[in-house]
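Researcher: I'd like a structural prediction for the single chain below. Treat it as a standalone chain; there are no partners to consider.
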Amino acid sequence: MNKYVQDAAASICELDQSDPLMLGRRAENLANALELSATGDLKSFTIRLVPSPKPGMFTSELLPIGTDVPREMVELANCAWRWCGGNRNHERGVGIVAASRIEFARATLASLLWELGSSEEVGDGRPRIEAAIASADWEHADDVARTLWAETLPEESSGSRFMGWCEHWDFSADQPAYNTRSPSREVHDLSTSELGAGIALTWIDEALASQCRGLAFLAEAAQALHDAGLHAGFIGHKEMLETEGQPIDARNREFARKGSDAAHRRSREAKGLVLATYRSGTYPSKDKAAEEMAGKLVHYAFRTVRDWLKDA
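Model: Treating it as a single chain, here is the predicted structure.
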C-alpha cells in the first residue's frame, strides 16, 4: 500500500468516532494532500486532429480504435469530449480528463477514510474497508478511476459523490478547492462541470474496454453527466446575470432560483425525509438514527445524514 495512505488510514482510526464532523474534515484534508499521477489516455478511442479554417489551428474528435464500437457510444464519448473542450483544444481536453481522475481518487479516498474511521472494530466493517483501501493503487489515479466502488461505497453513485466533492469550496480563495492544488494549477480555470465530463469520459471508455462491467460504468457516467449539466446550467445563467449591464429583474432571479433548486433538489428532498423521520421517531441518539437511515431510508452516506441531523 502507498505509505502515505497507510499512515492516513492509521491516523483516522485514532480519532473520536463520536464527532463525525471532525472525522469528515480530517478525511477530506488527508485526501486533499494525496499526491498521485494520472494520464488522459483512453483505451477505446484515439484523437483525430482536423485542420480548422484558421491557419495552424485544429479541432479534434474521438475515433473508436475497434471496428465494432456502436455509433451511439462514439457520439456519447464525443459529447463528453466536447464538454471538456477537447474539440477546441485537445491538449487541454486530455489535461481535464487526467485532472478528473486525480480528483476522483482523492474523493474516493476521503470517503473510504471516513468509512474506516466511523466503522466499529468488531464485525466485518473495518476489515472490509481496510481491504478496499489496500487493494487500490493510490499512486496511479487512472487505476482508481477505472475501478467500480459501488460494492464498497453503496450509499451514493460514484458520479454523485464525485460531483459533491468537486463542489466543496475554499472560501479563503473564493473558488472550488480543487483550483488551489495540483493538477488544477497546471490546467487553468477548471470547472466542476468539466471535471464531471472528464470522469464520465473515463467511464464511457472503460465500459467499452471492460464490457462485463459496461452497464455499471455507463450508469455512473450518466449520473456524472446529469449532475455536471445541472451545475453548468446554473453557473452559466448566473454568469450571464452578472455580466455588466445585464438587468437582473424578478424574472431572471426566479430563473436562477429554479436552476439552483434543480441542482440541489434531490439532496433537499432526502434531507427533509431524514429530518421528518427523526422527529417522528424515538431514536436513542442522532448517531444511531443516522446509522439506521443511511443507505436504507435515503441513498446517502452516514456522514451526510448525520450532518443533516444537526438541524433536527
